[in-house]
Amino acid sequence: MKFYNLIIKYRFALSLLSVALGAVLNITGTGFWPAFPLYFIGVIGLFTHFFIGPLRLIQEPMEAGNIEEVEKILNSVWYPGLLYKPIRSTYFTIKGNLAMMKQDFDSAEKHLKKSSELGAPMPEAEGANKLQLGMMAMQRGDLKQGESYIRAAIRAGIPDKESEAVAYLSMCQIFMNKREFRAAKDFFRKAKACKPTTKQVVDQIKEIEKYISRIPG
Q1: What does the pLDDT average to over 34-61?
Q2: What local confidence, expressed as pLDDT, does residue 3 receive?
Q3: Residue 216, CB-side half-sphere exposure with 13 Å CA sphere
Q4: Which end of the chain has less neighbouring CB within 10 Å, N or C?
């Protein structure tokens, strides 16, 4: 695995070297066909460098929490538009998540929208993207767009119960604001049914529970 990661890391330089060696063999009189394997390896290497990219290298630093290394790998993608579509979607998702960590919500929204437009490789990832977009829309006070994104997230599927609870609580708040109390209560029950354990989500449920039972509908 480490050897393969090294190949990916230095693939561009190795590919150029292979093409250069092929050219030297060709020019010095050995002929085209003896040099062909080097040309072929070099061209395939260059193609995969731009079409597949280095995103495979991200897993290890992500698990280690080495965000600087993750950003360095992402920055080595010179032309994201050339990446294979599912990989390009993942690229923009990671860029968006990193921007959110830095609280750069404008950049986060831009990258996550690009990922969403491309279609996530897995429906769960698409659901997570749309949920984040919905939460950002709500932070801006745009409840209509927030509702649209969060509904789309629920339809696509959300990867974990904590995030699913957040989605239902957000819908509860939206419908409370619209004074559609029956729907708000229904979303609140769905949020509780997720049985979240994250303190922030649990506290939010307790806070809403204080007054939602007294609301008509």
Answers
A1: 92
A2: 77
A3: 1
A4: N
* CA pair distance 89, 53, nearest whole angstrom: 12
Model confidence, pTM:
0.76
**C-beta atoms surrounding 20 within 10 Å:** 12
130 and 153 Cβ atoms separated by less than 8 Å? yes
Residues 6+ apart with CB under 8 A from 23: 35
pLDDT in tens, 68-82: 999 999 999 999 999
Around Cβ 10, how many Cβ atoms within 10 Å?
12
Mean pLDDT of 119-130: 75
| DSSP string across 3-55 | HHHHHHHTHHHHHHHHHHHHHHHIIIII-HHHHHHHHHHHHHHHHHHHHTTTG
